[in-house]
Design a protein that fits this description.
Elements: H1 46-74, E1 79-80, H2 84-104, E2 113-114, H3 117-128, E3 146-147, H4 156-182, H5 185-189, H6 195-208, H7 210-217, H8 221-237, H9 262-265, H10 269-281, H11 315-342, H12 350-369, E4 377-378, H13 380-389, H14 394-408, H15 411-416, H16 422-442, H17 452-474, H18 484-494, H19 497-509, H20 530-534, H21 538-545
Parallel strand pairs: 1-3
Antiparallel strand pairs: 2-4
């Protein structure tokens, strides 16, 4: 193992302090808060991409199992007319299709799509309205699912109709989200979302899952702490260690062997594998009862609409879907900006935001029609993983989509994911959510945080976004307007911390007077990270902006689509490459950011020798 690398490395190592001579920084960017995140300078090898994709699937699994487990526990006691493994398989299939579409034609960022908590909280509100009073008490976590084989099973129709109604809300959410994207609403709003809008949203996104993380870690705190300790050691203490040259060769024609920062790159995969093995040896692995099935799931299953029944559309499902759409849109726009920042790209242009939200909506519609009670949205924990391992690639995102779709075709394989111990899932979520939280704090330096205006906006947005959901849970009398559908809408929105933080931050940021520099929008660039873009060379800006362009040959069709949908296409005046010609097909398919010349490096970056 070595901390130096005699040959140029493909992944820029960050944060090393031993035996390295940092490059001098231009005076304009000598900022102690500046970041230089790793990015491939050439296509990654297929073997390395497969391992990174498997790592992202483990993170996705933590969200998948957590959301489905908590939702199934909230339902009334009784049976299901189908196996929980089939629900997981349908959700995995939707996530795989949505991830591939998002990377290919959506935002074009390597974002993994997963069933986020923004779908779970409104779903819990909706299902709680149908429960009998006897089981609406808090702490009811001992419900047990079993397949019902006779017509006399108690709660069968209630449980099935509850899941169908949640699936209907997911379909409504996808339709509304897709409509907002097609109309270009995200692209029009995003330029007004500065650091004081994004930072509170990221901080609240990190805090919002603490209750669920504590719940899963409490199943065995020893395993959870062991996993967290290993992830911290691999990603931070051993992050700069390089393995000796290995036989993995880059996909390019170069024959240069490289040192691989394996501990940092696999700081999720290796700890999860180790703790999973330890828990199995100690006999601590157990599938949650809510996700287990007495009968074996089929090896092959082709998901299709109305497999069990069509989604149930009711007025309450409609209002729940509205709250889901608003919350997931807020969350996804934050993911776009954060992922672009981590990969040294300019903030996403309006057309990329609109396309991304449109295809996320399509993924949620597919999930709802397949019977899944969870839609698809850009995953904050997976973006946190990109920050943790400091590497991102479209090729990895494509492989994640392919593997998820493959697992969705086999409920038996999907059921294997439920054997991951709950403390492991909680530990993975805890570390990745903490990274998202830290990126929210780190973005404050882009604005004048000493300004009284900014201090009020940040404090008020964060505190109220955390207070209102807690107040609603602890209130002795539930919010009641006399119309159950409106009650569900208000309760759903008030239980969405990310939506509350984004909405309050956006409202205050754009109504309280303040200068552009004070708001972190200096240089006249209306973007959340304009200060980072200000020092980028012009050639780099142009080539970076092209990462959001549509893939060949789709741009040739933009002139033929209806005028209202032109918001999904880059504007004619958007910069191309330096020569002004179109990109070659696949030129930057596997590379993010894929710059021809590197961005200025920070003081923590290694010099390739």
């Amino acid at each position: 193992m070595s901390r130096s690398h005699p040959h140029p490395i493909q992944l820029r190592s960050v944060g090393s302090q031993d035996n390295q001579a940092p490059l001098p920084l231009p005076p304009a960017i000598q900022n102690p808060s500046s970041h230089s995140w790793a990015s491939p300078h050439g296509p990654l090898s297929w073997g390395l991409c497969c391992l990174l994709a498997l790592q992202h699937i483990l993170v996705l699994t933590s969200l998948l199992c957590a959301s489905h487990l908590l939702l199934l526990r909230s339902l009334s006691q009784g049976g299901l007319s189908y196996s929980p493994a089939q629900i997981l398989a349908s959700s995995l299939f939707s996530c795989g299709v949505s991830t591939a579409l998002q990377t290919w034609m959506g935002s074009r960022l390597p974002l993994v799509q997963a069933p986020s908590f923004e779908f779970l909280f409104p779903a819990l509100v909706l299902t709680s309205q149908k429960l009998p009073l006897a089981i609406q008490t808090p702490g009811n976590s001992s419900l047990m699912l079993h397949l019902c084989e006779g017509p006399g099973c108690h709660g069968l129709e209630l449980r099935n109709s509850s899941l169908r109604e949640v699936s209907g809300a997911v379909v409504v959410s996808g339709l509304l989200q897709g409509t907002l994207g097609l109309l270009g609403v995200p692209g029009h709003l995003f330029p007004y979302c500065g650091p004081l809008v994004l930072a509170p949203s990221l901080i609240v996104a990190g805090f919002s899952a603490h209750k669920e993380v504590a719940l899963f870690c409490s199943a065995h705190w020893g395993l959870a702490l062991l996993l967290i300790l290993l992830m911290v050691i691999c990603s931070q203490h051993l992050g700069s260690c390089q393995l000796p040259p290995c036989p993995w060769r880059p996909a390019s024609t170069s024959s240069t062997r490289t040192h691989i920062p394996a501990f940092r790159l696999f700081s999720v995969l290796v700890p999860v594998a180790c703790v999973w093995i330890v828990s199995d040896i100690l006999g601590l692995s157990a599938t949650p009862l809510e996700l287990s099935a007495p009968t074996e799931a089929p090896w092959f299953w082709l998901p299709h609409p109305a497999e069990w029944d069509w989604p149930l559309l009711t007025p309450r499902a409609l209002t729940t879907g509205i709250s889901m759409a608003l919350a997931t849109s807020t969350s996804s726009l934050g993911c776009y900006a954060l992922c672009g920042w981590l990969l040294h790209l300019p903030s996403p242009p309006p057309h990329a935001c609109s396309r991304g939200l449109s295809l996320e909506g399509l993924g949620s519609v597919l999930a709802g029609l397949l019977g899944s009670p969870m839609g698809t949205a850009s995953s904050f924990p997976n973006v946190g993983t990109v920050s943790l391992i400091q590497a991102g690639s479209r090729r990895v995102a494509y492989l994640v989509g392919l593997l998820c779709a493959g697992l969705g075709l086999s409920p038996r394989l999907a059921q294997l994911l439920t054997t991951i111990p709950l403390p492991v899932l909680g530990g993975v979520l805890g570390v990745t959510q903490a990274v998202v939280l830290s990126t929210g704090f780190s973005s404050f330096h882009l604005a004048d945080i000493d300004s009284g205006r900014n201090v009020f906006i940040v404090g008020f947005a964060i505190f109220m976004a955390l207070l209102l959901p807690r107040w609603l849970r602890e209130a002795p009398v539930l919010l009641s307007t006399g119309w159950s559908s409106l009650d569900v809408l208000l309760r759903s929105l008030l239980t969405e911390p990310i939506f509350l933080a984004g909405f309050l931050g956006f409202l205050l940021e754009n109504t309280i007077p303040g200068t552009q520099l004070e708001r972190g929008l200096g240089q006249g660039l209306p973007s959340p990270f304009s200060a980072q873009e200000a020092w980028m060379p012009q050639k780099t800006k142009r080539k970076a902006a092209r990462e959001y362009d549509l893939p060949f040959p789709v741009p040739n069709l933009c002139t033929r689509i209806p005028q209202p949908l032109r918001c999904l296409c880059p504007l004619p005046e958007d910069p191309g490459n330096e020569e002004g010609g179109p990109a070659e097909p696949g030129e930057t398919t596997d590379l993010l950011p894929g710059f021809g010349e590197q961005c200025p490096r920070s003081s923590g970056e290694l010099r390739s020798q």
